[in-house]
Amino acid sequence: MNDLDKIDRALLAALQTDGRMSNAKLAETVGLSETPCARRLRRLENDGYIERYRAELSRRALGLGVYAFVYVRFAVHDKNQANRFEREIQAIPRILSCHNVSGTADYVLQVVAHDLEDYGTFMRDQLRGLPGVTAVESALSLREVKSPGALPLA
Questions:
Q1: What is the pTM of this model?
Q2: 75 vs 106: CA distance, rounded Å
Q3: Which residue intervals define the domain HTH asnC-type in the entry (predicted)?
């Protein structure tokens, strides 16, 4: 982060707001001409500050009305079992994220489903059958107050 100057931070901030911004608009936004802007952008990508570009889709428009935080616990903490669990969840699209955490749970998942019945079926038929899973607790989101947004650049 110390390698970033004011213009680099401005580039990253602008792209977090609009990842489809053209190079010309981006250059104008940060006060550069197009060639130096493109060069800086390429460096930021190559240095790993920008991992990828993607579209943010609407859960509502896609009919995914249930958003749950799922706390998964293991009875036995075996490295091979944990590795199998982590590999298998990679292939389940409705699991948006998975974090190995400290505390009473071993993992916290973010999961989407069409409705409560769909969520219940997923829990019964998929999640509870994953390697190592002995207990599952869900917290359903009632309302999103703040969505994942731009990373702080200060």
A1: 0.84
A2: 10
A3: 4-65
